[in-house]
Amino acid sequence: MENEKGGQSEFSRAPLDMPAEELRAIGHRLVDRIADFLQTMPTGKVTSGEAPAAIRALLPKGNLPDAGEEAGKLLDEATDLMFQHSLFNGHPSFLGYITSSAAPIGALGDFLAAAVNSNVGSYDLSPMATEMERQAVSWIADLAGYPTDSGGVLVSGGNMANFLCFLTGLRAKSFSDIRECGLQGDRPRLRVYASRETHLWIQKAAILFGLGTEAIQSIATDDHMRMDPSDLRTQIEADLKAGNKPIMVIATAGSVNTGAVDPIADLSAICREHNLWFHVDGAYGGFAACLPGAPEGLHALSLADSLAVDPHKWLYIPLEAGCALVKDRKMLLATFGVRRPPYFHFEANSEEVVNYYEYSMQTSRGNRALKVWLTLRSAGRNGYVQMIGENLRLARFLFEEVSRHPELEPFTCDLSLTTFRYVPERLREKAADPEAQEYLNHLNSEILTQLQKRGEVFLSNAAIRGVFLLRSCIVNFRTTREAIRAIPPLVCRIGRELDAKMRGMPGMVR
Ligand SMILES: Cc1ncc(COP(=O)(O)O)c(C=O)c1O
Predict the structure, then answer these.
(1) pTM for the predicted model, two decimal places
(2) Ligand 1: which residue has its CA nearest to atom 6?
């Protein structure tokens, strides 16, 4: 509908439509503000450490207003809120958990993807995005040293990638009629083997997919927190004797706790011997396989039947991006494919056409691939070798700095993950005594709380055989030697302050 002046009438525009000029103006303003933010963010704090109630109080009160608001004003407000009250995992001193800094090109990719809004559930709805995802998945496999013709699909993260692989292994190795009959009936008990260091996703998988947590047999670890193949063998044999049905072994390539890489080749040999599905959780460590001097197990990832990797970790892709890889593509289709319903007018899956709704739990899917595809091309293999390699060198540098400090006790350094704790000098000689141990656990937990609140450096924690440890995990292309050098004196300063307060309290070691 045209108005008298030849422009669009106000009635023809939907409340959410936006004239090109307005989009251009507020879009440019937003990009300018993001560029300024990324430039100055490294010089500020990692987090403002505000209380939840203070954050909540910043948002509008009450129900959704009847009247809509002006887009430019809203975006300005949202930008202020995000820039002033967030935790910045792209800060050089954010070394907590396994959350990476995000490549700016990935953020732009997400913007573009959302603007086009392809539905990557079927090829017909997303021809270019589907092909980009196919290509991104094969490049991801290549970086992890996994066959590039494997089946694969982008998902929201490591948990989902592991779930998909778990379900594929379950379908392949449990009962031939599992798709029709499920786990019902008088059947042998299914058994899955994983070390105690496996990420929490395994508990969720056991609960959600009908096996129950008792189906998971926990396998012992060695002194380096790696799965012990001889214990695995013993447990499988015991289960076979008891009439249970072993189906799957889950190894980890880069554990969440310490970065340990399980002995992939040995575990794979046991799986082959017993015809078990061999899944590797490489959500954290998988991409370090691209380094020429990567830990041994990472060069054997291609032995796995399925591999979960997490581009939003060590590929520095903005959240969310995980990837499930299954060596035999047909196994993915056999798990997630269903009879095409009459309301789908899509071509069947073939070598030529991929309909991603048959590769995972989702039907409609956004274009996650674009940010992955762009970021991968922007860095290239050499870029990743440089950035991941530097993260490993910085982790080793932290371990050395900690080792030289009389009040710090280093524990482990695997991949880019370093663990250590603060030990006051007076407890140095008796740190292993149970009473001192309990006190040190308490003291280091308080140190971590303080560190996280103050926001100068953000660490997380690990636990090794009952010892509470501070844990730095570097999946951050902005971290520098200066940022690392600042950690030991800061931890010691906070440690001394807290020790002075806590040692006087009842029940604390003096
Ligand atoms: C080894 C491992 N597996 C799985 C996950 C879960 O990944 P996400 O948080 O992306 O779901 C993590 C997360 O840190 C991890 O380290």
Answers:
(1) 0.96
(2) 158
